[in-house]
Structure formats: C-alpha cells, structure tokens
Amino acid sequence: MIVTPSKERLIKENFIEYSFENEDYDFIPDFEIFKKLNSSDQYYLAENFNWDDGIDVLNWIIESPKCDSGTACMIFWKAEPDYYAEYNAENIGESDKEVFDLLQKIISKFKSSGFKKNKLKFNLLENGYNSADFDSEYIIWELPNELKKGTSGIIPISLGRIQTMIWMYQRNRRLKKREKRKKARKKNVT
Fold first, then answer.
1. Has residue 187 been placed in a domain?
2. Domain boundaries, position 26
3. Looking at residues 128-153, what average pLDDT do you find?
4. Is 71 contained in some domain?
5. What confidence score (pLDDT) does residue 114 get?
6. How many separate domains does the chain show?
7. pTM, full prediction
8. pLDDT (tens digit, 9 = 90+) per residue, 160-177?
9. Residue 151 falls inside a structural domain
10. Could you tell me if residue 170 is inside a domain?
11. Contact, 47 vs 61, CB < 8 A?
C-alpha cells in the first residue's frame, strides 16, 4: 500500500499544513477532497496530523467506511487516552469533550466490529504506547482486545518514509565502513 507523492502533497497542502497558510482560525478543510483519500492515505494523514488544528478531520477518518482498524487504533493512542480515562460523560470538562467523544466513538466501533478494513498495522510498543498502563474505574473505558494489542498488517509506505529508509541504509553503511577503517588502522598500529 503506497501513498503516492501526489497524494502525499495533496494531504499536506489540504489537511496537514493548511493551518500554517490560513489565518482563518475557523477554517475547516474540504470534505470533498477528503473523500478522495483511500485507507492508506487516511493512515498517512492520521500519522502526520497536527492535533492543534482540531479533530474534525480525525472524526471524518473514523466515520469513513474506508477507515482501517489500524488507523483507528493509531488515532486512539495518539490522543493519549490515559488522561481521558479519568472521566466519564458526566464529569468531562467542556474543553476535553470533543476528544473524549472521539475516543468513545473509536471504542464503540471496535466493539461493534465497525471497521470493515483490517489491513494496516499499528504496533503499540513500537510507537511508544503500552496498554498495560491503561486503567480506568469507568466501564466505558473497557478496551476491546484489538485496541489493547494493536493491529497487524502492513504500514503504508510514502515517499517520505522511503527517503528516510534510504537515508538510514546509507548512514548505516557509512558507519560500518568507518568502523572497518578504524579496526584496520588499529591493527596496523600494533
């Protein structure tokens, strides 16, 4: 599953970097453009989304029939649910209500098998999350296994990810060569 450079650019311009260019604080991205995104594109968007821009776009992703369970799992854990698990619908503050509702929507959809696509991977531990640390006194925060364990599958690849992989490969190769030269010099000195 590949996020093409043109889709990557479209996503950055319309959903990730739009707030840098737009001085209208109430600006909402174009839903018609969003509908053109496939499940891999949505994963890329969720992975790179600036939460300071609000959660309208994240709601669009979760409500989309194209939304993969891996994307939903990523959004759930990136929202730092530990904080919200201290609350229920009666005692949540108004400023936290939108994210609280998004998290509850994700839990509900997982419990009802509402995500029809299950091809994309989100590994909690690889991304710095641990469901063993998640706890709440409220039953509404009882997590389905898929949210606790993460999802299996593949991670969509993008030009940016490919460039990083190439850079890391080249860097590691240079470091290995450097180590060989150091060992050879030490050998020659003794």
1. no
2. 2-155
3. 94
4. yes
5. 96
6. 1
7. 0.82
8. 778 777 888 999 899 999
9. yes
10. no
11. no
For residue 24, what are its two tokens? 């209208």
Scored b (16 or more CB within 10 A) or e, 111-140 reads eeebbebebbbbebeeeebebeebebeeee
| Locus of tokens 């018609």 | 32
Q: Which amino acid is at 111?
A: K
Upper half-sphere CA count for residue 158 (Cβ side, 13 Å): 19
Rg, C-alpha atoms of the chain: 21
Task: Write out the chain in H/E/C secondary structure.
Answer: CEECHHHHHHHHHHHHCHHHHCCCCCCCCCHHHHCCCCHHHHHHHHHHCCHHHCCHHHHHHHHCCCCEHHHHHHHHHHCCHHHHCCCCCCCCCHHHHHHHHHHHHHHHHHHCCCCCECCECECCHHHCCCHHHCCCCCHHHCCCHHHHHCECCECCEEHHHHHHHHHHHHHHHHHHHHHHHHHHHHHHHC
